[in-house]
Amino acid sequence: MADAKRPLPNPNEYDTREFWAATKEQKLVYQQCDHCGTVVFHPRRHCTGCLGNALSWREAAGTGTVYTFSVVRQSYHPFFRAQVPYAVAWIDLDEGPRILSNIIGVADPAKDVAIGQRVTVVWEPHEDLSIPLFRPA
Ligand SMILES: [Zn+2]
């Protein structure tokens, strides 16, 4: 079980392929509407503010704040079973997007992760993409 592999997203999915291509370069990107300025995340083909389709890609600095989190203590998937306990968190990036990820690099996620905590991205590289994870800043 120690060699179980993380399940990975499809890097060629129509709406998110630009996002995953950027992760390969360890860039965290999001979309912003050219018409109304709405920050759009997760990636998609239309603006969630005005329904227009003029979206531009922007690069986030990779820093943010924990909006909320939960600690996973049990998993039936071989990869995640080897990771427990671990924190799953919604992170508000400084540019506005809210991203779901893990908080890593803490001894005890139940004690060392907190709402409002500052975090920064760390990358887990794979062949076709990198997974954005976060650690305390
Ligand atoms: Zn818009």
Summarize the structure.
The protein is mainly β and 137 residues long. Helix content is 12%, strand content 39%.
Q: Under the CATH scheme, which class?
A: Mainly Beta
Q: Write the H/E string, N to C.
A: HEEEEHEEHEE
| Domains, number | 1
Question: What is the averaged pLDDT score?
Answer: 96
Report the CATH architecture.
Answer: Beta Barrel
- Total number of β-strand segments? 8
Question: Could you estimate the helical fraction of the residues in percent?
Answer: 10-25%
Terminus-to-terminus distance? 31 Å
Provide the CATH topology: OB fold (Dihydrolipoamide Acetyltransferase, E2P)
Overview of this protein structure:
There is one protein chain. It is built from three helices and eight strands. With 137 residues, it is mainly beta. The chain has one domain: OB fold (Dihydrolipoamide Acetyltransferase, E2P). Strands 6-5-4-7-8 form a five-stranded antiparallel sheet. The longest helix has 8 residues, at 17-24. It starts with 16 loop residues before the first helix and ends with a strand. The structure holds zinc ion.
